[in-house]
Amino acid sequence: MQTNLPSQQQLLQQVHHSINSNQIEQAWKQCQQLLKQHPKFADAWMTNSFIAMRAGKLEVAITSIDKAIKLAPNQINFKLNKVMLLEQCGEIGNACKLGAQLLDRNVTEQAVLKSLAAFFNRTQRYELLEKCYLKLLVNEPNNQELLFNLANVNLFLGNIEEANALATKALKGNELDCDIHFFRSHLKKQSTSSNHIKELEKFSQAL
User: Fold this and answer.
1) In whole angstroms, what is the distance from residue 169 CA to residue 162 CA?
2) Structure pTM?
3) What is the C-alpha separation between 108 and 114, in angstroms, rounded?
4) CA angle centred on 41, ends 40 and 46, rounded to 5°
5) Best CATH choice for the domain 12-73 from the list 3.40.50.300, 1.25.40.10, 3.40.190.10, 2.40.50.140
């Protein structure tokens, strides 16, 4: 009588259970066994990359995520995870390049766009950050937080009038928001030729 073997998804669940239990060494061994049995299982390679990253094996993590992407090239989350992994490895330029490629692919998933926005904000890539917020606003055109964030980005980019217009829009329905009022008051002291953009950039870099 043939014994029913666990499916690849069941095996992957066991790996995830070990990860969630903070048993990283056990998860690593389980994932290696899983990959030996199912070498074309993209989700397993993605998980292997995550475990390797947790274990400080950054080269293995990158190799693993590359294999996952090769097996499932349309999986946006795999590429997003590679962006974050490259950032952790200190390869900011390559991370930004891949992030920009994701934006150019007309990504529409809000969660992915928000993750990319957080990344571009950390790395001070304000033109790419602007693109993220514009895409996010397509589905949430009246989102006060997104509008205000985009206003701040435009201030960094020196687009004073656009920053003011966005801040004004963000105030609709939120007329008592002190932060936005302070921001607009600050904008009145700015102009495209006379502003504090350089000082703001230095302050941001110091944070």
Assistant:
1) 11
2) 0.82
3) 10
4) 120
5) 1.25.40.10
Q: What is the pLDDT of residues 27-73, one digit of tens each?
A: 999 999 999 999 999 999 999 999 999 999 999 999 999 999 999 99
State the number of CA atoms in the 13 A half-sphere of 196 facing the CB.
Answer: 11
Element (H, E) at 19: helix 8-20
Sign, CA torsion 106/112/118/122: negative
Per DSSP, 108 falls in state: -
| Phi-psi map region of 22: left, alpha, beta (phi>0 left; psi -120 to 50 alpha) | left
Gap between the Cα atoms of 80 and 98, Å rounded:
8
**What does the alpha-carbon distance between residue 63 and residue 125 come to, in Å, rounded to a whole number?**
26
Q: How confident is the model over 72-99, as pLDDT tens digits?
A: 999 999 999 999 999 999 999 999 999 9
* Residue corresponding to tokens 């014994």: 3
Q: How many CA atoms lie within 13 A of 6 on its CB side?
A: 13
DSSP state of 2: P
Decide: 51 and 32 in contact? Cβ < 8 Å.
Answer: no
Which tokens is 59 given? 């080269």
Tens of pLDDT, residues 135-174: 999 999 999 999 999 999 999 999 999 999 999 999 887 7
